[in-house]
Amino acid sequence: MTSVADTLRATYNSGLTRPLAWRRNQLEQMIRMLEENEAEFLEALATDLGKPAVEGFITDIAFVTGEVKSMIRNLKKWNRPQRVSSPLVTFPSRSRLIPEPLGVVLVIAPWNYPVQLLLVPVAGAIAAGNAVVMKPSEVSTATSALLGRLVPKYMDTSAVAIVEGGVPETTDLLGQHFDHIFYTGNGTVGRIVMAAAVKHLTPVTLELGGKSPVIIDASANLRVAARRIAWGKWLNAGQTCIAPDYVMVDEKVSDRFIDELRDAITSFFGDDPQSSDSYGRIVSPRHFDRLSSLMSGGTVVIGGETDADSRYIAPTVLAQVNMDSQLMDEEIFGPLLPVIPIASPGEAIAYVNAHPHPLALYVFSEDKAVVRNVLAGTTAGGVTVNGTILHLTNPNLPFGGIGESGMGGYHGKSGVRLFQHLKPVLTRGTRMDPSIAYPPYTERKAKIFRKVL
Ligand code: NAD
């Protein structure tokens, strides 16, 4: 049986995906799919994750349409050959970088922002002129089914395919020949993806996760810090790859910070977050059980309530944290926030450096020297200073990890560039043909070379 990669390769080789008009049309169709079916998407996100409609709209609809609209606006510019200068020894010549698509791209997405994390890379691949196979997460079942129904209705299925399914289906895809694999998810599967890519020497982008720290020094505006951390942490009930994972706060202000967090939680979600329309749910019983057991790693000082039937876990803050517990070992990826008092920012820097490079790092301080030290003294995929999450929303800042948190960055221009090969082309003129470079290599020529090279 012909594999989906082979079918799409035949389309790609036919040249269908090359004209900018085809790419623009497909990107417009993607926007149409999201806009015409917005209510259904929001409903599916609510079924999978209890996602509040406003949150779903911002993170999984508007974020995607914003990125795609920018790709449409810049389609010509980002696919135009770039002139570069040529060295004297190549005279007479001109040099260009010609952006070319890579071929057939595979995009594998996770469940936490199941529309955004699938469609933004798919759009980048299309804008660059590739054919693309997309594999939504089987964990976000309703959203996967909806995409499975709508993508073939709106997109050109001869070049843009969707394959639904779990491990067997993904394993089958990974055995096929792709020209780039873009994977978002956990590091264990990231390693499986990278190992599979070896067979065809396929380049990979890995958007992984990890424990993203927050460092707060004594000079920080604690009220603002608490509100910004509370927003970034309890968005999507903590199931965000760059959610603050744990907080290291100067011990002199630690209690005050926890009081501010309590106020922030109450002002966002009321006294009973379970009845709030603005608070999500845990994606599956498996993750609910995992998170419930992580709570034993500290003392609950805020929240802690759970309800297995509705997969609800309250916004929860833990103090007196056991640094050797599972809570501090694995990425939490849920609504639990350990708060750890520290003697100085240096202690936090040392702790961060003793662990794998995080996907995101946050520092809150009014002291520029502290911010400088944290930035210079740590490595992370990306940073927001005096805030959380927002570096991801700037299309001019490539989003991605480093080391254990991933490789490669996307969003904005970098999200198209990722799926292009910039082919270097040097074109020589023929009206002159200086003989200096040709044999025989005389002493005179050697002298000239010594001067010009
Ligand atoms: P998931 O379980 O949905 O898995 C992701 C994808 O991998 C799915 O499409 C799934 O079908 C596939 N998969 C699962 N097991 C597989 C296997 N054995 N072989 C081949 N494919 C397999 O999502 P997840 O991994 O639980 O997602 C959560 C993780 O993703 C967290 O670590 C989070 O930090 C990270 N994440 C990173 C980003 C980012 O942009 N860097 C964004 C969101 C989530």
TrEMBL record:
Per the UniProt record, the source organism is freshwater metagenome
Residue stretches making up the Aldehyde dehydrogenase domain: 19-423
Q: Which family does it belong to?
A: Belongs to the aldehyde dehydrogenase family.
Sorted alphabetically, the keyword list is: NAD, Oxidoreductase
Tell me the InterPro entries matching this sequence: Ald_DH/histidinol_DH, Ald_DH_C, Ald_DH_CS_GLU, Ald_DH_N, Aldehyde_DH_dom, Aldehyde_DH_NAD(P)
* Phylogenetic lineage: unclassified sequences, metagenomes, ecological metagenomes
* UniProt-listed GO biological process terms: aldehyde metabolic process
Database matches in PROSITE patterns: ALDEHYDE_DEHYDR_GLU
Pfam families according to UniProt: Aldedh
List each coiled-coil range: none
Task: Cite a GO CC annotation.
Answer: cytoplasm
SUPFAM superfamilies of this UniProt entry? Answer: ALDH-like (SSF53720)
CDD domains in UniProt: ALDH_F3-13-14_CALDH-like
What name does the UniProt record give this protein?
A: Unannotated protein
> Mind listing the GO molecular function terms for this protein?
aldehyde dehydrogenase (NAD+) activity
